[in-house]
Amino acid sequence: MNAVLRCGNFEERRDKALALFAEKGFGQVSMRELASHLGLTAGSLYHHFPSKQDLLYDLIEELYEELLACLNQGRRGHPQTLVQVIAAHWALHAERPLQFRLAERDQCCLSPDQQARIGQLRQQYETALLRLIVPKATLRGEALQATAHVIANLLNSLPGWLQASQLPQAQGLALMESMMLGGIERTLRGESLNSMA
Predict the structure, then answer these.
(1) 66-109 pLDDT, tens digit each
(2) Has this prediction a pTM greater than 0.70?
(3) How far apart are CA 20 and CA 91, in angstroms?
(4) Are residues 11 and 108 in the same domain?
(5) Residue 63 to residues 48, 56, 103, 168: CA-CA distances in angstroms?
(6) Max alpha carbon distance in the chain (Å)?
(7) Is 55 inside a domain boundary?
(8) Residue range of the domain that includes 92
């Protein structure tokens, strides 16, 4: 993450940039408009971010670093459980819903090199998910990789869908846990795949 957004007003400026991108669309916001919206001069913003894509990249990179941190917290002591990971994703989504939406919707606006780097972070994230769930898995190879990809997508989307409902927070989180754990357990046992063979 770039130093201009890591200053004392980092969260406020990050949230303002995210809100502007969400309101107008990433492609519709000029650097001059973004600088004005953030309370910076255009020159100051250009000094730290040569393009909007660089800012977008930093915002998406930050999200994936946070997601990886959610998965890696348990390494220093007791292993992280899937329930803890689900709760951490729920909390992070509640804290940064626009960042999740931006990462999903506007990642295609990044340069090819930036997309490749985000792809590497995404792969690290999915690999960390696999390490968490693989002891229970009977699936192997491409089926296991596809499972990690789907689980990652659900962890990153389901909180937003449930948090938008009228359910109380505790009930929404409990429903997410039930859906995720039930689906993962059945999939990793290979019941659905074996019954189709």
Answers:
(1) 998 888 775 555 557 888 889 989 999 999 888 898 888 888 99
(2) yes
(3) 23
(4) no
(5) 19, 11, 8, 25
(6) 62
(7) no
(8) 60-196
Task: Judge whether residue 159 has pLDDT over 50.
Answer: yes
Inside any domain, residue 170 = yes
Q: How many angstroms separate the CA atoms of 169 and 172, rounded?
A: 5
Tell me, what CATH number does 33's domain have?
Answer: 1.10.10.60
Q: Total domain count for the chain?
A: 2
Could you read off the pLDDT of 17-52 as tens digits, one per residue?
Answer: 888 988 888 889 988 898 898 888 888 888 777 888
pLDDT value at residue 135: 61
Helix H or strand E encompassing 174: helix 169-189
Per-residue CA distances from 51 to 58, 116, 183 (Å): 11, 18, 41
Q: In Å, what is the CA distance from 27 to each residue of 31, 136, 179?
A: 10, 43, 35
178 in a structural domain: yes
Rounded CA separation 162/159 (Å)? 5
Query: Which CATH number do you get for residue 118?
Result: 1.10.357.10
